Amino acid sequence: MSESTIIQNDKKHVWHHLTQHKAFESSDPLVVSKGKGMYVTDTKGDEYLDATSGGVWTVNLGYGRDEMVDTISNQLSKIPYFAGSVGNEPAAKYAKELTSIMPGLDRVYYSNSGSEANEKGYKMVRQIAHFQNEGKKHKIIYRDRDYHGTTIGAMSSSGQIQRTKQYGPFAPGFVEMPNCCCYRCPFGKKYGECNIECAHALEDVIKKEGADNVGSVVLESITAGGGVITPVPEYFPIIESICRKYDVLLHIDEVVCGLGRTGKWFGYQNYDVQPDIVTTAKGLAAGYAAISVTVTTDKVFEAFKEDSSNPDSYFRDISTFGGCTAGPAAALETLNIIKRDKLLENVNTVGNYLKSKLHELEEKHQIIGEVRGKGLFCGVELVKDRQTREPVDETVAMSIVGHCLKNKVMIGRTNRCFEHNNNVLLFSPAFICTKNEVDLIVEAVDNALEVN
Ligand SMILES: Cc1ncc(COP(=O)(O)O)c(C=O)c1O
Which domains does the chain possess? Predict the structure, then answer.
């Protein structure tokens, strides 16, 4: 098919995600056709350096990995699918390997998207409430600026007002707590002079709702699309101790940070905390197959076995595509490649380099208010004025991303999350990124900032 036919078919029939299509009446959409390493090529033959791992933190091993393709192909020729009510070989192997890098967590429930993995976590909490508390301990607390997915249930637990706008009414039983962004402290405090109010706020919310009614709190380890918000070291230990005090399960959403992005296997492993439920997806199989997991402690799992005489006392849930064998086969290969090629080390080394180069930009460009992040996961917050910290308009971030794209470098940005805080540039190159590629990424941003 010719390039123009592909584009015409796309323009006529494909509904792009997160996209206002009016623009395509006067311009062509970007249509990718192949990729190798850190680079993708579009149907016009233009090559782009991808600092986003496929737009949304997913292609963590880079493009064109034949070993991934071979692994998946071998698995598919053995058996592609059977419903998850029975076992399969890659699912069993991967569950063992995955839990071996998640001390304290023992059980893996497979599904096929981050939203779905979170929904499973919520359903587990709701059902445990029925087993143990006559359905009372069913409320789920989530945090402002966090995102947990696109389904109505996941949106009901998402603190991004622009993402949820116009999609209500939402599911009841979800309650918001404040975010933990120091740069824009919701309590107007400064780190070092505060009592980590953002973490203690959880206790206030639990007390307000009644501890008898609260089943879990769901938090991103590092808020991703909400602006790469890294909590202070004290944050998670305080959260965990409040959860233990009130018998509230701690559910950590690792859909973005899971499996290496921050330089540790999981984002939460950067902090001194032990979750009860962990969900992850996106980069788990590096974008070569769709897979997500809800990983729990034995204690959570055992709650579903306690009353075997009751016909309702098991997890009555299924995910059709959670039974695809390509997912765990590809995820296992991803884990093995990360270990074999020492990619966590690379994420740390090159991630530190990326951060230091972004700090150099901060010295040069007044528009940069803050650089933050961990590993190959960085955010650059743009402001009109460093003193007042007034955010730049979303159009400024859009224009910088657009300028980089014209220069064949793809970077990300907070995309329609909050009315006034869509001002963070996002950087999440694949784990194979070199310092040389970081230089090219940062140079493109430097040029874009010069003209904006
Ligand atoms: C932290 C977080 N959780 C959950 C999701 C939802 O994942 P999915 O799009 O695979 O449903 C996302 C997607 O961006 C995310 O960033």
Answer: 31-64+342-451 (3.90.1150.10), 68-340 (3.40.640.10)
Minimal-distance CA residue to ligand 1 atom 7 = 114
Query: pLDDT digit of tens for each residue in the chain (452 aa)?
Result: 888 899 999 999 999 999 999 999 999 999 999 999 999 999 999 999 999 999 999 999 999 999 999 999 999 999 999 999 999 999 999 999 999 999 999 999 999 999 999 999 999 999 999 999 999 999 999 999 999 999 999 999 999 989 999 999 999 999 999 999 999 999 999 999 999 999 999 999 999 999 999 999 999 999 999 999 999 999 999 999 999 999 999 999 999 999 999 999 999 999 999 999 999 999 999 999 999 999 999 999 999 999 889 999 999 999 999 999 999 999 999 999 999 999 999 999 999 999 999 999 999 999 999 999 999 999 999 999 999 999 999 999 999 999 999 999 999 999 888 888 899 999 999 999 999 999 999 999 999 999 87
| Whether pTM exceeds 0.85 | yes
DSSP letters, 312-373, are: T-S-----GGGGBSHHHHHHHHHHHHHHHTTHHHHHHHHHHHHHHHHHHHHHH-TTEEEEEE
For residue 436, what are its two tokens? 């040389």
- Which residues sit with their C-beta closer than 6 Å to ligand 1? 56, 113-115, 118, 147-150, 220, 224-225, 253, 255-256, 281
Which protein residue has the closest C-alpha to ligand 1 atom 13?
Answer: 149
CA of 306 to the centre of ligand 1 (A): 32
